Input
Amino acid sequence: MHVGGCLFLPELLASLNPAQRKAAMAEGIVRVLAAPGSGKTRTLTHRIAYLIAVKGIPPDRILALTFTRKAAKEMKDRLKKLIGAKNARRLWCSTFHALCFKILQKEGIKFKLLEEKRRLLLLKHALAASGAELNLKEAEQFIGLAKNNLRLLEDMANEARLSPVIAEKYAVYKFYEEKKRQEGLFDFDDLQIETWRLFKHRPDILKKYQHQFIHILVDEVQDVNKVQFELLRLLVPPQNNLFVVGDDAQAIYHFRGAVPQYILQFEHYFPQAKTIKLEQNYRSTQHIVNLSNRLMAHSQLKISKQIWTNNKEGTPPRIIAAANREEEAFKVVQRIKELIRQGTPPEAIAVLYRTNYQSRPLEDNCIQFGVPYTVVGTTGFYLRKEIKDMTAYLRLIADFNDDEAFLQILNVPPRDLGPIVPLLQEKSIETGKSLYACLPLIDYPSAEMRRRAERFYGIIKKLNGLYQQRIYNLGQIVREVRRYTGYDAYLGLKQNAVDESHLDTLDEFCFSLIRFKDVGKFLAYLQIAQQEGRRKQGRRINLLTIHKAKGLEWPVVFLVGCSLGLLPHYKAHNLEEERRLCYVAITRAQERLFISYAGQPSPFLKEMTGKV
Output
């Protein structure tokens, strides 16, 4: 049967459970609290179909918002099946940023979107001009969070006068914003800020969009930041039809500016709001649901939910204890091998961890024992930029004739020695010597350039001496490289805005190299590791961080590193968010769940099991 131009079967809402159906048909301002695997996206899309087919709302009067282009595309694809492609095209379905971009363009606001390379260059200029003792990552984070939290430049001047710390950051922020303004540039965060400004300063334009959108729907509302929430509050009147879906227990993006309090205290901002809970979990077994409930029972910041499932009881989650992370990875990979041997498809298995560097021992064991894997959402451990840099240093230290390695690291960290490369190449052809060996033989354009080249030459020579004695393992050699070259400080200043996780990766690399004293043997291993790390296709187990796993599910999940200092992470300041991360990890599992730790177990493990 076709209703309102879309296919709408009478049994469409009948396919929903009572709570989902109640949410799909609710009027006014509605907060839907959706447990993992409770069909929240299904509920949201069926509501849109209901609004169009039954309530007669034109598709272009409905706004559906989510947080990633992938999620927006998936929502559109589902809607095409429910309401037809024509209606789906008329619907406003996008991310917040895409919506703001469209509104600014429609209203004739002239701007150019700032490209990433140009943005980083402007930030570097701002740091240099202000003299601030910040690295690029710190400046990026400060400005990004300031904008997401609506701490505008004009509002921060008073704070800057009262605090030297804020004054330093404010100077960078001010220079950056003024330069953008001069060139008519908007960065990604400006799209939301400038739309908010437009609505505040032009009530006529705001009124137009308030009347345009009869119904506003928001997915993953626990991830909204302040500027996004304020945009919603402006747009919702006069019809007051706002439908938000989310889970306070899956709020894990506070570090990006998300404000969990908006979903927790939704009725404070919208006193007329109704709350509907989707508490039936269709994803996981009873044992997994029970475990997740026990964990969240310890949360101090949550809305009570009675999550349940009609799924089978299943196999109890298994705990894997190990003395250290190497043994932990070995035990996990051996268990995975056994599961695959018993018939579990590799792609049905996910291994989740708190931080990227934790993939290294897992990758090593997968390589050693022939378990095919893919690192999801990032490169394999041995393909990361900092690992490639340190590997090039090791190659040159072991072999002065390795011209490829020499060229890779001559200016890493930056030494401004690019102009001497043609001179070295010419001298190398003339003498038959390596580029490194030609460093003392060329005429330098300046005394300063000669001094920098001599220092680089001396570092490599000294480290070669240590290597030849075979007293140091390669991990110790890499630590010396980092110390002599200042590589760690360079990571904080380089254009890619590297954060501390890259230092953790380097520390992990050093640890992994303890077993090697010979560069040749390491390079032979590295070739295999890099080949495996590049492979993404085929039947492979999935290695990924918990953050990247959000919204996904697998029949079998391993949560590794459920250890004191890793989960919760020793650098984390928000214990509640770390608990929510653990909750997200275990609720990805459909049938089997394994939790491993090395050394001392996480306090979350005791919360889940009541014992260790």
Observations:
- The chain has 28 helices and 16 strands.
- Confidence is low (pLDDT under 50) at residues 1-5, 494-499.
- The first helix runs from residue 18 to 25.
